[in-house]
């Protein structure tokens, strides 16, 4: 007997609350495997392929290309298990009721990232005027739309709709409808209020409960055993932040401490989100009406929504301006010797060393001397937190907009390793393949705006970091060298910093050290 499960847009981590459907990777009627990517979505940070935790036949999809869905909104439904034959579906007697005290047994189907499902509890028919046991009393909000049971024939059962098309599922399958705008849904209420998906405790034989398949993949790629982690989410649920803390070796927060995981959003009127509605078993996607626009464009005007990458950049820059009292200092430097040193390194053979990698190596050496600039401010505790690792972000312009990929542990890398990582992240950014983990967690940013042909800038600090080094174009200019006027390759360096973490003396010392290394690269030998 088959059962239909609903897969909702999972929390993709890093505080993301919505995503836009870019491309469906499956069609209605396709057979999908556990952890198979089913849809490609674009978040405010990256393009992500979302894997489905269920294996079976796709019966319905919710949302078209370009639709923006909140976290927790339905993505698709999947019929799992072995469907009954038509003859069996007609002649088989109804299942005997279970004793009220019996415990649900695990189905054995491992759902990657979500634990192991227990078979849905059988529900008795509710007579008119009789309340259902375990049913939600507040507008049916307690119904779990992620659990769907196999039942008898009903209107529209065993079909799913996508773009108006329907594909039958063999056997009689009833899809539990999600409550809309507070309407009661008695049939979808689990017996005794038990959830449809039971997350096994850590250390059990089943999989460890994590908040999304992406978290499990992050742990797998880094060789981290999830069974050794104590999740900080509800009921020990392992969040992305728990895995990242384990990878960097920091302690998890105390129980009850708020985490970065965003709560699932609930679709309401005015969002334009498609939610499964209608009669149980229909699986029909009905869009919620969209509220009219607040303002209309005047003749000749064009209104561009602030969403996706552009919206994320706008929010972050506005927050930085509100919270960070920044200041900027700058200096001109003779980069002639730096360019000669890079030419000599590349002439020695081996992989080419980029100029950005040499500047990054100078930055990490300067941060070792001035650690106040590799920090963040804890506003609640009123403390400056000095960070032990240097995760170096670098600004990159792509077709999707400005992104800041992060080079992890830049302080442990040499120029050759930095060049390779810069090249890899830049290519991934242009192709739209950067993951949220590669776009977050920076502690200091290097901004090479000289590629735009400009000399100077006063950049905005990348919140919650404390400083950003800006590098202008390198151009020949008149310069006094060894007491004589000469044409030298000159660059302007600027440092924007959070004035809460240090005073001008520290910022000036950092910038002067960087300029000295640019003018005389041999200065770096003292710290190598």
UniProtKB/TrEMBL annotation:
Q: What class of enzyme is it?
A: transferase
| UniProt-listed Enzyme Commission number(s) | 2.3.1.-
Specify residue ranges for compositional bias: Low complexity: 257-284
| Record-linked InterPro entries | 2-oxoacid_DH_actylTfrase (IPR001078), 2-oxoacid_DH_E2_comp (IPR050743), Biotin_lipoyl (IPR000089), CAT-like_dom_sf (IPR023213), E3-bd_dom_sf (IPR036625), PSBD (IPR004167), Single_hybrid_motif (IPR011053)
Q: Which domain of life is it from?
A: Bacteria
Extract the SUPFAM superfamilies matched here: CoA-dependent acyltransferases (SSF52777), Peripheral subunit-binding domain of 2-oxo acid dehydrogenase complex (SSF47005), Single hybrid motif (SSF51230)
Keywords, A to Z, come to: Acyltransferase, Lipoyl, Transferase
One MF term from GO for this chain? acyltransferase activity
Q: Where is the Lipoyl-binding domain?
A: 4-79
Cofactor(s) essential for the protein: (R)-lipoate
Which residue stretches does the UniProt record annotate as biased composition, category Gly residues? 137-161
Give positions of region: Disordered.
Answer: 86-165, 250-284
Which parts of the sequence belong to the Peripheral subunit-binding (PSBD) domain? 210-247
The family line of this record is: Belongs to the 2-oxoacid dehydrogenase family.
Q: Which PANTHER family match?
A: DIHYDROLIPOAMIDE ACETYLTRANSFERASE COMPONENT OF PYRUVATE DEHYDROGENASE COMPLEX, LIPOAMIDE ACYLTRANSFERASE COMPONENT OF BRANCHED-CHAIN ALPHA-KETO ACID DEHYDROGENASE COMPLEX, MITOCHONDRIAL
Under which name does UniProt file this protein? Dihydrolipoamide acetyltransferase component of pyruvate dehydrogenase complex
Q: What is the lineage of its organism?
A: Bacteria, Bacillati, Actinomycetota, Actinomycetes, Kitasatosporales
């Amino acid at each position: 007997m088959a059962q239909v499960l609903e897969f909702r847009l999972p929390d993709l981590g890093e505080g993301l609350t919505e995503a836009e459907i870019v491309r469906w990777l499956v069609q209605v009627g396709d057979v999908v495997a556990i952890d198979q990517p089913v849809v490609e979505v674009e978040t405010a940070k990256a393009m992500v392929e979302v894997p489905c935790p269920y294996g079976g036949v796709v019966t319905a999809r919710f949302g078209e290309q370009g639709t923006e869905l909140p976290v927790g909104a339905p993505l698709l439904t999947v019929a799992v298990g072995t469907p009954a034959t038509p003859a069996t579906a007609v002649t088989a007697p109804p299942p005997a009721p279970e004793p009220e005290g019996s415990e649900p047994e695990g189905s054995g189907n491992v759902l990657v990232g979500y634990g192991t499902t227990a078979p849905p509890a059988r529900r008795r028919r509710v007579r008119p005027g009789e309340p259902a046991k375990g049913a939600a009393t507040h507008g049916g909000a307690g119904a779990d739309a992620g659990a769907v049971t196999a039942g008898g024939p009903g209107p529209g059962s065993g079909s799913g709709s996508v773009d108006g098309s329907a594909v039958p599922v063999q056997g009689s399958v009833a899809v539990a409808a999600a409550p809309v705008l507070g309407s009661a849904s008695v049939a979808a209420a689990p017996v005794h209020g038990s959830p449809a998906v039971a997350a096994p405790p850590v250390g059990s034989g089943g999989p460890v409960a994590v908040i999304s398949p992406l978290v499990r993949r992050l742990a797998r790629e880094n060789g981290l055993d999830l069974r050794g982690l104590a999740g900080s989410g509800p009921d020990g649920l392992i969040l992305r932040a728990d895995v990242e803390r384990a990878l960097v070796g920091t302690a998890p927060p105390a129980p009850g401490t708020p985490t970065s995981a965003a709560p699932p959003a609930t679709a309401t009127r005015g969002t334009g989100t498609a939610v499964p509605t209608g009669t149980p078993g229909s699986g029909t996607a009905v869009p919620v009406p969209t509220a009219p626009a607040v303002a209309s464009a005047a003749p000749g005007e064009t209104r561009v929504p602030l969403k996706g990458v552009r919206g994320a950049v706008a929010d972050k820059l506005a927050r930085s301006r509100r919270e960070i009292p920044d200041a900027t200092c700058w200096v001109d430097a003779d980069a002639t010797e730096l360019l000669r040193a890079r030419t000599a390194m590349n002439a020695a053979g081996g992989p080419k060393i980029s100029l950005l990698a040499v500047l990054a190596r100078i930055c990490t050496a300067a941060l070792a001397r001035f650690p106040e600039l590799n920090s963040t401010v804890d506003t609640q505790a009123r403390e400056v937190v000095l960070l032990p690792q240097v995760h170096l972000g670098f600004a990159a312009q792509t077709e999707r907009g400005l992104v800041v990929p992060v080079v992890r542990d830049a302080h442990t890398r040499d120029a050759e390793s930095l060049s390779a990582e810069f090249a890899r992240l830049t290519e991934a950014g242009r192709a739209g393949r950067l993951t949220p983990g590669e776009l977050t967690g920076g502690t200091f940013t290097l901004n090479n705006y000289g590629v735009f042909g400009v000399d100077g800038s006063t950049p905005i600090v990348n919140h919650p970091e404390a400083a950003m080094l800006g590098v202008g174009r390198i151009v020949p200019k008149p310069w006094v060298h060894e007491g004589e006027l000469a044409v030298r390759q000159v660059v302007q360096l600027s440092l924007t910093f959070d004035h809460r973490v240090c005073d001008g003396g520290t910022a000036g010392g950092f910038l002067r050290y960087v300029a000295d290394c640019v003018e005389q690269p041999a200065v770096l030998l003292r710290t190598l």
